[in-house]
Amino acid sequence: AQSVAQPEDQVNVAEGNPLTVKCTYSVSGNPYLFWYVQYPNRGLQFLLKYITGDNLVKGSYGFEAEFNKSQTSFHLKKPSALVSDSALYFCAVRDPSGGSYIPTFGRGTSLIVHP
Amino acid sequence: DARVTQTPRHKVTEMGQEVTMRCQPILGHNTVFWYRQTMMQGLELLAYFRNRAPLDDSGMPKDRFSAEMPDATLATLKIQPSEPRDSAVYFCASEGAGSSYEQYFGPGTRLTVT
What we know:
The complex is a heterodimer.
Chain A: E1 3-5, E2 10-14, E3 19-21, E4 24-26, E5 32-38, E6 44-50, E7 56-58, E8 64-68, E9 73-78, E10 87-94, E11 104-105, E12 109-114
Parallel strand pairs in A: 2-12
Antiparallel strand pairs in A: 1-4, 3-9, 5-6, 5-10, 7-8, 8-9, 10-11, 10-12
Chain B: E1 5-7, E2 10-13, E3 19-24, E4 31-38, E5 42-50, E6 53-56, E7 65-71, E8 74-79, E9 88-95, E10 104-105, E11 109-113
Parallel strand pairs in B: 2-11
Antiparallel strand pairs in B: 1-3, 3-8, 4-5, 4-9, 5-6, 7-8, 9-10, 9-11
């Protein structure tokens, strides 16, 4: 069975500082990994993904994430946070070896960027 | 600008009433997911369809929930009878064949059952 954990319910960071939102996963095969962002009263919006290739993936709005197979992690990062980055962030995993490709989402991490 | 649409955006109903939520996936997308989001449970997968065929509805309470895709441009989620514990935001998401598994979410239907 696949699973994903976001160990922090909330991350606080000052505007201009780097941010990290953590995600760890568990799958039986090679994972497909995703980050989504949800702004208030909106649906989830795709940010970036790792399927194969370079472990460092870049996505929308200056976000990036690094796939670390040995640590089974896929942390989301941004060098300089903006107040407008404040939102709920979800990590998701899919296990292609499972055949069904059903995604499993983490519980979400609330990112608060202070001016 | 292709996007997933959902109607209604908000629904307030009394316990025992039937609720129907509709979703129009992005044109050409062949996979549709229904999710429920609550503070307590987070994001839960209720059901999903590929090429209009239901593939998994194990997350859905079978006695009161039903999901269908009458055609490729419409997915429906019905609750009958509704209960207060069904109060949540219901999201539809679609995914295209060969899209590398990126899901596109609709804006959601906020359901309140009193």
